[in-house]
Prior knowledge:
single chain; 2 domains; 10 helices; about 40% helix
Amino acid sequence: xxxxxxxxxxxxxxxxxxxxxxxxxxxxxxxxxxxxxxxxxxxxxxxxxxxxxxxxxxxxxxxxxxxxxxxxxxxxxxxxxxxxxxxxxxxxxxxxxxxxxxxxxxxxxxxxxxxxxxxxxxxxxxxxxxxxxxxxxxxxxxxxxxxxxxxxxxxxxxxxxxxxxxxxxxxxxxxxxxxxxxxxxxxxxxxxxxxxxxxxxxxxxxxxxxxxxxxxxxxxxxxxxxxxxxxxxxxxxxxxxxxxxxxxxxxxxxxxxxxxxxxxxxxxxxxxxxxxxxxxxxxxxxxxxxxxx
Length: 293
């Protein structure tokens, strides 16, 4: 998105170059590079993108992440509610930039014989696969509700739990890590995407479901509400497996539910157009490079 107008260097750690501007991703992980940049280029712009675990976790406990907030000239959040997690005195520096997706997979005919739900998320605590596991167990008697899961076992214990559940319950399938293209195809083919995460900056799986016309059932956290809108009808409380199971049952049993959620998603889809994200990014860089404040 930036290269048509700027020369861009990507690096995991800044190497003391002579660039005009730094875009740092993640307050804690980029803390050392940000400090080095500010020491060498005290007057040059520094933009920090708060990607999720820093905004909703690190900045409350980590001194390096907190310092990054002060060093940055602008703070970018990836959902519409992101600024609420920051101290009041920093919110004037905040800009919202919703990530985009080029998915736009054509809507696929979907069987009426069953409901196929899909979770896309690596097996680690922050994504809360346990909530999905527990909902699957609660739905064990519903052979017309199938639950697929895409994601690598970053936590081996959760991987073992997924294997055990798949062996005990045929309606749950753990598909492991899949390529982006494979995952996008599964999102487009599912009746509904389930996103039970306990912490998110702005989940790309949710965005790709929305632009693919696949309704979403998501935990009511700021990272999800800030993408789907406060009035979205597909939320359940974080960790509430019973609430998720009830929504999945309704999605199967109430013919009007999924079309209503799909309509709400369709109204949000224009927010995730690549041209919109590009315009936001380029406008922010123009602002910083024209006049650093």
